[in-house]
Write a structure and sequence with these properties.
This protein is mostly beta strands. Helix content is 8%, strand content 45%. It has three helices and eleven strands, in the order βββββαββββαββα. A six-stranded mixed sheet has the order 8-1-2-11-10-9. The chain is globular, with a radius of gyration of 15 Å. It starts with 6 loop residues before the first strand and ends in a 15-residue tail after the last helix. The C terminus is likely disordered.
């Protein structure tokens, strides 16, 4: 498998490492007060108001189905943009920027899983990193944003 986007932001949930393509990252915010939204899915933490904009915030742990995950006290919010839509995603830690070009990689088809939240897994510098697909991660119905769900 070739790594489609070699420059990534390495993030952590518990002991596991994940990567988000740099091209999708708008900014990294420190922990902020989040306004809860009634009647929203469990993975929606609420909204934050940043520089005149309301940004929905998702829990990466809930979104990925890690129900027993204990969040860190002050999780950063990784603002991801796909098309016209920007969403904040809480991870335990934003670890570092990383270039994974030339890393050993396995695509979803090689692992035997359907592509969705993940595009595959890479090994880089002795680390196993799960590659996240932002189009699926921030979509409300687990289909890629590019299929038509975009906010103005």
């Amino acid at each position: 498998m070739c790594v489609a986007e070699p420059k990534v932001l390495l993030v952590r949930l518990a002991k596991d490492l994940y990567a988000i393509p740099i091209a999708s990252i708008e900014e990294i915010l420190p922990a902020l007060p989040i306004e809860a939204m009634p009647q929203s899915p469990e993975y929606v933490r609420g909204v934050v108001f940043v520089r005149g904009h309301l940004i929905p915030v998702l829990s990466a742990a809930e979104r990925l189905g890690l129900r027993d995950h204990q969040s860190s006290d002050d999780p950063p919010v990784i603002c991801v943009r796909v098309g016209k839509r920007m969403v904040g995603i809480e991870f335990d830690e934003a670890v570092d920027l990383m270039d994974i070009e030339g890393a050993k990689a396995l695509g979803c088809e090689e692992i035997g899983v359907q592509e969705g939240f993940f595009t595959g897994v890479v090994e880089c510098n002795g680390l196993v990193i799960r590659m996240l697909n932002p189009e699926y991660l921030i979509s409300p119905d687990e289909t890629p944003i590019s299929t038509g769900f975009e906010q103005e």
